Amino acid sequence: MIRVTLPDGSAREVVRGTTALQIAADIGPGLAKAALAAKIDGELRDIMRPLDEDTNLSLVTSRDEADALELFRHDYAHVLAEAVQNLFPGTQITFGPSTGDGFYYDFAPTAEHGPFRDDELPLIEEEMRKIIAADLPLTREVWERDKLIAKWAAEGESFKAEWAAELPQGEELTVYRSGDGWMDMCRGPHLASTGKLDPAAFKLTRVSGAYWRGDQKNAQLSRIYGTGWLNKKQLAEHLVRLEEAAKRDHRKIGREMDLFHLQEEAHGSVFWHPKGYRIYRELEAYMRRAIDGSGYQEVKTPQVMDAKQWEQSGHWGKYRENMFVIPDEVPNIEDEGPIVSDGAEWMALKPMNCPAHVLIFRQGMKSYRDLPLRMAEMGCCHRNEPHGALHGIMRVRQFTQDDGHIFCREDQIVEEVRAFCQLLDRVYRELGFEKYAVKLALRPEKRFGTEEMWDKAEAELREAVARARMANDDYGWEELPGEGAFYAPKLEFHLTDAIGRTWQCGTIQSDRVMPERLDASYIGEDGERHRPVMLHRAILGTYERFIGILIEHFAGRFPTWLAPVQAVVATIVSDADEYAKDAVAQLTAAGIRTDIDVRNEKINYKVREHSLAKVPYLLVVGNREAEEGTVAIRTLGQDGQRIMPLAEAIAMLKGEATPPDLRS
To answer: Which residues are catalytic?
Structure first.
């Protein structure tokens, strides 16, 4: 017999080998029908998997939405793979994980078929629904390594055979079988059967190319994406969000508003156009005022540093694959021979600013009275992201962080983190984000530092959030085990945009490792050397990504203070051209970014064009307005117009064009 303890504290003695489903049925038939999986000592497991020792058991139902969605999406991916192999024999399977809003699976199609196409998705969806309707049991099996590798090889599944052969020797190899036939190698867990899925709650969305193991040197695969939910209603709501997101796509709006472009000659780097760079400059100026007012000292550090520095900081070993490496020698200019010699010393473009900031801190002796020292940099960095992972200006290779590091004493940590939380709160709200979540990412499996060091750092961040009055449901407070950086726990701040999507932007990390590795110290009150604690922090994250988020959040309709063009003066007749020019001069003198439109076009055409360009205010003038010194103001997104004196219009627009931190 084994002892099973339930969430309410009650316990049951059951025969070893009893399943969680049998316990659910013993409690009640309704629970047995609703139960999807089990949590065994906090770990998600198949509901049909036998229990073999004393355990804490909770049952997962659709009310446990996060766990239920993970299960459903994992199963949709398996059903997708089975459907593809049913329809297209000879197709090899690779991997198929769940994602934030669905799932995907990577396939190696036959040479005869070639890559899958979007027009084949409806056929695959129909086959998936047949598999779901068949209500096939999903059964877990444990296989011996050699037998499984031999099976995959015999069936022509070379990718699965390769992966199985490279898994650690002591690792248990498990497969899941759908009914009596199709199977896939997987750790699980899965639902009890395909019939638990809702056939009306998924949709295949697109096909793209991918590489085996994400390496462009490997075989090219076809990746089929889908979205999966618990029921039809959730799917419908998600598809509406997708439709709205497509309208707000920053790449589409960026083209329409002439903000930026990207091209292959500079993979992952943004070409900012004048209007886009105006947004960038306004945001940067706002952030400078915010950090200046919070006691930060701005610095500028080199783009390239010697590899030895990155070795000492720990990044060379942990992060080198994401760094752009540069030989420190003159390249060979002859036609023959290698461009770089074997004896070249190596340097790297900086992927982050923190080691350089430590080097600034180390210049000159620091006293305990000098702390906290708040250092900020609008630092341009480079990271070698795979081409397939790049996405508009949201994920790039060259980016600028609103970076900062606070060097402080142990007794200053909590107050500095609390003050940062309040600064971030003000910035987010002034930028138009009323809702965000605060999450504490805890120690990962691979990390630097002692357990005592991590205990202390995590406790300090918890206390700081509590003092900032954010450790509650209003701020979505949550702890995330295993998701901290290799050198420090961190607070993450997740914004919610206008259509309900979340974006992780701000962060602050409490780090005792890097000051030790890079030998940073200060003289304490006792006259001895001490290590400062280094708080890594950012509010926006990167300017590129945050501007992309702003574009999609506002759908291009920026608040007036951020809009690249704040007003356009447009004429109805050419006789009003001189008055329009004078109005533009007065508006510009008042600090309002203004364009003029005196083209020989109908006013309705001009109104439509400037509305598409998302200009907040259109000031229409004709003979009457010129005679009376007035303007007819049209506000973006509103019907009708208001007639007012030009001076009054300038005063109104000046107020709208003033950044929120300067209005008081």
So the answer is: 354, 383, 401, 403, 405, 490, 536
